[in-house]
Structures are given as structure tokens and as C-alpha cells.
Amino acid sequence: MEIADRPQPPTGAARLLFRAPVHLYRWGLGPLLGGRFLLLNHVGRTSGRRRRTVLEVVDRTPGGAYVVCSGFGPRADWYRNVLAHPRVLVQVGARRFAAEAEPPAADEGAGFFVGYARRHPRAAVRLARMMGFVLDGSEEDFRAAGRELPFVRLHPRA
């Protein structure tokens, strides 16, 4: 595995394109995205304002938690926000629930990325490239990249 160049979060027109799925949820069309994406409602770490981000679901754990990843690294606003304020609201399709955000250990994140690559091999290669990783497609390369990525587990709260 080689880290070529870690991308910056999108700005301008690219940011508008990345934000488009948020509008689907606002218009009540979130179920069209199925269970592969979720809407994360979180609080800004400095502003205290409500924020919304649509993220791809990397994995589901037996306890009903969803695992997501910050493709733009640990400097992504949503990631820093949930570390500062881990109580969040999640919507997957039409289902909404309160959750607690928790970053897993790096080795656990490696396992999540390997599992994602097994389920979605072409998407995993494209995402890795977009995130600045040059991978040979081997499980060990996906595991190494997964150790570098910031994952978050979203546990449902009672």
C-alpha cells in the first residue's frame, strides 16, 4: 500500500454535488438510498448548530450499530464534530434513531475495510483511490489502508 496524496474535502461545485443526498433526505426521499447510506445529524463542535451529512455504511455490527468512515480523513468536519459531541441522530432509509458515536481501534477499522472490499470490490478500489491510497487489491493492502482511515461506530441509544 502506498499513500499517494490525501485529498482535501471538496469545495465549490464539488461540495454541492457531495451534499446532494442530504437534500433527498430533506425532501423525504431518503428511502431511495436504501440501507447503503445514512443521514447523520450531528452538532457543530464550535458553532453548536445542527449539521447533516450523508455517509456510506461500511458495515453493520451484531448489536445493530452502523459503521461509517471519513473518506477525507480525520480533518473532515463531521468526523471532528462527532468526536466532540458523540450524541447523534441517524436516519437509514425511513428509520430514525438516536445513537452514540465511537471511534473503533485501528485494527478493528482494518477489518471493517477488508469486509467492505469483499462485499464491494470495485467500489472499494475506487474509494481507496479517491482517498489517496494506491492499492494492489490484496486483502493485506485493504487492511493496511483500513488502519489509516478514521472509522466511527454509531451505537443505537435506548
Structural summary, described in words:
There is one protein chain. With 158 residues, the protein is of the alpha+beta class. The chain has a single domain, classed as Pnp Oxidase, Chain A (Roll). 36% of the residues lie in helices and 28% in strands. The protein has a seven-stranded antiparallel β-sheet with strand order 3-2-6-7-9-5-4, sandwiched between helices. Strands 1-8 form a two-stranded antiparallel sheet. α3 packs across α4. The longest helix is centred in the first third of the chain and has 15 residues. The mean pLDDT is 90. It catalyses: oxidized coenzyme F420-(gamma-L-Glu)(n) + a quinol + H(+) = reduced coenzyme F420-(gamma-L-Glu)(n) + a quinone. It comes from Streptomonospora halophila. Belongs to the F420H(2)-dependent quinone reductase family. InterPro entries: F420H2_quin_Rdtase (IPR004378), Split_barrel_FMN-bd (IPR012349).
Largest sheet, spatial ordering of strands: 3-2-6-7-9-5-4
What is the number of domains? 1
Count of strand segments: 9
Helix content: 25-40%
Order of helices and strands: EHEEEEHEEHHEHE
CATH topology: Pnp Oxidase, Chain A
Q: Using the CA coordinates, give the radius of gyration.
A: 15 Å
Helix/strand structural class: alpha+beta
End-to-end Cα distance: 40 Å
Query: Strand-residue fraction?
Result: 25-35%
The CATH homologous superfamily is named: Electron Transport, Fmn-binding Protein, Chain A
CATH class: Mainly Beta
Low-confidence stretches: none
CATH architecture: Roll
Q: What is the overall silhouette? A: globular
The largest sheet is:
7 strands, antiparallel
Mean pLDDT reading: 90
The count of helical stretches stands at 5
